[in-house]
Amino acid sequence: MRDLILLSLIGWCCLQAFRRPWIGLMCWTWISIMNPHQLSWAVRSLPVAAAVGGASLLGLLITRDRRDFSTSRETITLMLFMAWMCITLPFSILFDDSYELWTRVMKIDLMILVALVVLHSKRHAMLLAWVLVVSIGFYGVKGGLFTLATGGSYKVWGPDNTYIAGNNEIALAIVITIPLMRFLQMQMQAKWAKMTMTFCMACMAMAALGSHSRGALLALAAMASVLWWRSNSKGVGAIVMVVLAVGLLSAMPQEWWDRMNTIKTYEQDDSALGRINAWHMAWNLAKDRVFGGGFMVSTAPIFAMYAPEPMRVHAAHSIYFMVLGEHGFIGLGLFLTLFCFVWGTAGTLRKKGVAQPQTQWLSDLGGMVQVSLAGYAVGGAFLSLSYWDLPYNLMILTVIGKRWLDRKEWLREKEEPVIHWPEFLKKRFAKKKRAPQLP
Hints:
Keywords: Ligase. The chain is an all-alpha fold. It has 17 helices and no strands. The protein folds into two domains: 1-65; 66-408, no CATH class. The longest helix has 34 residues, at 319-352.
């Protein structure tokens, strides 16, 4: 039954992608971020993302929907980063293994560029935020309830065969998504909706802790700190966060505390020492090879050449050293420049959005994107999510918002009328009175 429902949804997405490419992009983002087909039995082996992505590209060519080909500094930097990865590919130490991952990264980045062309309105930005929140919120809310039910004795994991399958990766994805949930909450009017979103955010935080990821704990602390700093009432915000933190941490078992305490005694932890050894390897590799070592550098032959401890082969588990080892200092520079631009654009939206009531949502968006980036910057130092598309979707949101603001779209777009559902339904289903008939 689950497979039939999922196949029907994917078929609908493909059909809509031909008619409206932006709907196809939303569906592709949902599949790429959430990976719902991995929750099924027969559909998990089908190339569903490729099907929806291909239909969206074809729809982009045959439809006359509005397109925006204007470039931004973020778009240019992303294309330069893609070009540099194409240049470094032939110089990969293990070309065959690197080529497979290179094709996957290029597909993701291509769809990010397509999204920047077909998404241009406030409606698109809001829907994209909802797609991201629902995609990760499904695992986060479920993981938070699971952690509460089990007392935190078991780890929270992501869906199999995905970028976020590991406990560290799903935790960082959850931390990045919490500020987007807060952004959507700031746009809500109904009290029940705001309370529901607060409950979901609390579950998300519990799931991040329930992953038993030390990097996620640091990312959660950084995200919460910037979120508090961005709040209007810092006194009330501090009290709420302290109470929430005490409540969440008190639910965690002793083995969780023992693992978190190894942050202070990292020199005695084998995993931490393995990461540090991998960081030294990436640094030595980048100094020796301008183009880096390619996408697959966490192998015994490469560690034998560049690692201080050749026998301790370990993944870098860091977005910074991962890019450094794979694409050299130039690749790392482009990667950091891209997200510095996103941070700057989000700050511009946060400051300029308060000028008009119609643009207040941009101020909220810019502030929350910066909160997400703070969590990504800190948590990413200890986790490997350099090429996954969720952080790049933050770039899409800021670029859409900046275009909308610069072109003063709020003066052109007609506000949709507010529907009062009780009155609407009453009129819709009311019996029509028949006019009296003349004799």
